[in-house]
Each structure stands twice: as structure tokens, then as C-alpha cells.
Amino acid sequence: EVQLVESGGGLVQPGGSLRLSCEASGFTFSSYSMNWVRQAPGKGLEWISYISTSLVTIYYADSVKGRFTISRDNAKNSLYLQMNSLRDEDTGIYYCARDRSRWFDSWGQGTLVTVSS
Amino acid sequence: EIVLTQSPATLSLSAGDRATLSCRASQSVSSYLAWYQQKPGQAPRLLIYDASYRATGIPARFSGSGSGTDFTLTISSLESEDFAVYYCQQRSNWPRGTFGQGTRLEI
């Protein structure tokens, strides 16, 4: 069974940093590109970052470019999101999602990030 | 940026009814469109990809159609577990992608 488990969320002050992790199991992690998607409280979904299998190709949404860094460790079956210079509007649930032929076919349960003073 | 507009924002129906949800793109996305279902407190689930293909394990009452800029998700006969929020997503400019704002399907 495919499983994605996010961790690392929490309360952080504006301007602070946080590192999210997503641990994968039940499939060959190194064979799939991965994404981070977030959802502000009571709002819709926003794709924020993509990383290819070999780490060569990385993309960010304009809203996080220059502040967030996506990475992965295929040996540890893990995906990461380093979030710096956090803003109030970064508050929300962060999901990791497996990329299969363009679509997000598996999602984690999400981890909540709250940016507040 | 390609903008997806979903309508209606809220759809009120009863079990057994037919539901028709719309997603319109600001420019052509070919058939690079998917639909996701999200229930309260849960992660989204992929229902339809490439506009009209059902994802693994999705019941046949869910169907998708359309291409270019206009897309439709149809649920032929609503069951109680179908009441949720539905999002469309385009990835014509993969790996970037955008979601619609969602349609809430309520009883």
C-alpha cells in the first residue's frame, strides 16, 4: 500500500523557518517525481513545488520561489521542503503528493504550518 | 498563468440525483485536466485524469468529459459519500499546475 507521511509542521513566527519531511513507503520512491501542495485554512489547493526523480528538475510557484527549497533523499525514501522567511499567508496544511503521468495519484495526510506572532 | 474557474461554487442536491460540475480554463489546456475529491479533514483523492479517465478504484458513476477550455465532471447518481468538495486541476504547463477554487457538493 502506498503511504506518504508528512511531519515537521508547527507554529513559527513570521520570518522564521521550518523544514517539512514526507516519508514514503509501499512503492519505489526513486521512480516517481514528487510535489508539495498546500491549502490555506478553509481555502482551495495550491501547487507549490515539484522535484524530478533524479533531482535535476525543480520548479516552484511564484508565491514561494526564493524562500522555499524542495529536496529529496532517494536512499531514505524521503521528500523535504525547507521553508524560510515565512509569512502569515504561508499558513496552511502542506501535503506531499506523488506525481504519476502529470497527476497526483497519492497524497499524504498533511502537516499543519501556522505562521503567527 | 492559466486560471481555472469552477461552477457552481455550491451545488445542493439529494442522494440519487445527477450532479454536473463545470471547470473552465482561461486558455486551452488540451486534455490535461484532472478532478479531485476532498472530504473534510482528508487529503484530496484523484478521481479523473486526462479529462475523462477514471483513476484506480473510482466507481463508474463518476465520469469526466471535455477538452480545450471546457470540462465537466458528472456523477450519475449521488450516494451519501459523494458529498464533498471537488477541485479541477490543469497541468498543461507541467510540472507547473493550477487548481480551480472548488465546488462544494452538499445535501
Q: Report how far apart the termini of chain B are.
A: 34 Å
Biggest sheet statistics of chain A: 7 strands, mixed
Enumerate the spans of chain A where pLDDT stays under 50 for 5 or more consecutive residues.
none
Biggest interface, chains and residues, is: A-B, 22 and 25 residues
Q: How would you describe the shape of chain A?
A: globular
Radius of gyration of chain A: 13 Å
Looking at the structure, what is the overall shape of chain B? globular
Instruction: Count up the helices of chain A.
Output: 0
Largest sheet geometry of chain B = 7 strands, mixed
Percent helix of chain A, as a range, is under 10%
Care to describe what's here?
The complex is a heterodimer of chains A (117) and B (107). By secondary structure, chain A is an all-beta fold. Chain A contains no helices and eleven strands. In chain A, a hairpin with a 6-residue loop joins strand 5 (45-51) and strand 6. Chain A is globular. Chain A starts with a strand and ends with a strand. Chain B is an all-beta fold and 107 residues long. Helices cover 0% and strands 48% of the residues of chain B. In chain B, a hairpin with a 3-residue loop joins strand 5 (45-49) and strand 6 (53-54). At the A-B interface, strand 5 and strand 10 of A face strand 4, strand 5 and strand 10 of B.
